[in-house]
Amino acid sequence: MTVYLPAVPGYDQLDVPIGDVVHVTEYVTAAALADPAALDAARKTVFGEHRAPVSRVPVESIVGSGAPYAVAVVTHPGGGTLFTDGDDVIRVAGGVTYLPSVHTTDGDFRDQYRWCLERIAALLAVAGSGTGALVRTVDYTATATRAEYPRCGRPRREVLGAGPVHPGAAGILVDVPVEPGAQVSLDALAASPPLEALNPGWARYDTLTYKPAVRAANTVYLAGFGALDPVSQQAIHAGDLVAQAEYVYRSIETVLAEAGGTGENVVHLVEYLTPDAVADYPRTVALREKHFPNAVVTAVVCSALLRPEFLLETVPTAVLP
Prior knowledge:
Structural class: alpha+beta
CATH architecture: 2-Layer Sandwich
Number of strands: 19
Organism: Actinoplanes lobatus
InterPro entries: RutC-like_sf, YjgF/YER057c/UK114
Radius of gyration: 18 Å
Protein name: Enamine deaminase RidA (YjgF/YER057c/UK114 family)
Largest sheet: 8 strands, mixed
Distance between the termini: 13 Å
Strand content: 25-35%
Low-confidence stretches: none
């Protein structure tokens, strides 16, 4: 069984069978990014010869922790099958293809976004898969490139194809790049077919290269959810984190209902908060426990979100009975 674990403040805090780890996410502050070799050394000390794909995500801070970085892992008994391509590591376990985050420092915003998508496609090919198997993408761009963000639509259409199934997606703004000159960093996840796109009738997704959620076997990979009215496409509840959280959580449940699921099936949440949301975040605990009583939660502070009114974006994963 695949297990999603909450982030802990450092590799030395992991308490899992290391040989079962199939994916690692490092949430790193500017202090940790200043010495990436130290991060690699800390991982090597704990992991030894075990290799797993690593997503390195720059953040402003980790909610509830003053640590310079936090580590979240996904485990699967036996660790699945290992593939490599140069320095990149891929693992396939339980029908899921786990990839490292990718980025480049060459070219402008659209060039870099396309490169990331094409690199993801190349890594999937190494593992015997393709972009049609993608179930989720999360891109990290800077506030300064917010106006350019719509330019990623063309490379997504050209590389990901016409569908009918496109991955769930989230877009997070981080103002400290994973490497100087990198305007985009991309995370992606793929799963074995058949895949089913889930959409409760929200027409806005008809022309987009992502869907509200994708089901693969009994797992539902949802997109990032903010307080956006799917009909008017207007952000709502500006300045009110609790109201935004309630709206987001109900939207997630609406999508899960398309697969016969409920909030009780959510096993993992990553919540991205803007700096303005941090003070009120404890007020959302009861809401989260009411809607998603079985979810492991990792909460981090990003620089901003694609809609300036958003205080919160939530990326859920659910497992159906």
